[in-house]
Design brief:
Blueprint lengths: L43 H10 L13 H8 L16 H8 L4 H4 L8 H10 L14 H10 L14 H10 L2 H4 L8 H8 L16 H10 L2 H6 L6 H21 L10
Length: 265
């Protein structure tokens, strides 16, 4: 017995497994091992190991009564037999199928009733078909779509109902559309957006409600914006603006000598 494996050989119906009456033992060249690789064991890792050792017979178990057997068999059977399992009653089986189906079949699973299956579909679907899942009911499905959607289509998701989805969009969307996300209701989205917008745009956020946004404006915005932030309500913002202006003043003294080539005091 291997470490961490259960020390009982019990099948999916709760009965003890007996190798002496196992029909699979009659299959030529079959490889199995009690408590380690057995198609009758209810322990999924042992079932998976059985098909890893015997992939040539996996297709014969795709209609088995135990969902773990069907799911494990789906990982090793040739793909020509997988479309029949797209509507399997168990989501574990459909999830396993979604990992391997060709694209022409995968598109048929974008409305699967279980979120984990749709998440798997969203991670594998071709870019050109991803837009079909932009409005999925589950936020995590939309999150996967936002991570992979072609940038040209991301503006269609910039107003997604979920903050985390919009934050992913803000990190990937083109700069022209990104400016619009500076008006997002969530400060986290605005923070992600402000990291990528042109410096010339930052001044429009000098009055932002979130001090972290104003801090970025003080650190990277125009000199005029920094001057306005010297009177900010937040100490850190005021300090950043003062330090920024102090550095700017020092740089100006280095660059612009006074009359007669004398540096101003």
């Amino acid at each position: 017995m291997r470490m961490n494996d259960p020390d009982e050989a019990i099948d999916w119906q709760g009965c003890a497994i007996s190798c002496d009456v196992c029909a699979e033992r009659e299959i030529p060249d079959l490889k199995c091992e009690p408590l380690h690789a057995c198609v009758h064991d209810r322990y999924a890792k042992r079932v998976d190991r059985f098909f890893r050792w015997n992939p040539q017979i996996a297709k014969d178990y795709l209609q088995h009564g135990y969902f773990e057997v069907r799911a494990c068999a789906a990982r090793y059977a040739d793909i020509f037999h997988l479309p029949a399992l797209m509507n399997d009653p168990d989501e574990t089986v459909r999830w396993a199928v979604a990992q391997r189906l060709p694209q022409r079949y995968l598109l048929r699973m974008i409305h699967d009733p279980h979120r984990e299956v749709r998440i798997r579909v969203a991670t594998r679907l071709d870019d050109r078909n991803l837009s079909a899942m932009m409005h999925d009911a589950d936020y995590y499905v939309r999150l996967e779509v936002a991570r992979r959607l072609p940038k040209g289509l991301l503006p269609l998701m910039m107003h997604d109902a979920d903050v985390e989805v919009r934050r992913v969009v803000a990190k990937r969307i083109g700069v022209d559309a990104l400016v619009k996300m500076l008006q997002d209701d969530d400060p986290g989205v605005r923070l992600d957006a402000i990291e990528r917008v042109p410096v010339s745009v930052l001044s429009m956020l000098v009055g932002d409600a979130d001090w972290r946004i104003r801090y970025e404006v003080a650190a990277r915005g125009s000199r005029e914006a920094a001057i306005r932030l010297l009177a900010d309500a937040d100490y850190e913002v005021r300090r950043c603006a003062a330090e920024r202006l102090g550095k700017d003043e020092a740089l100006s003294r280095q660059r612009w000598p006074g009359e007669g080539g004398i540096w101003p005091e």
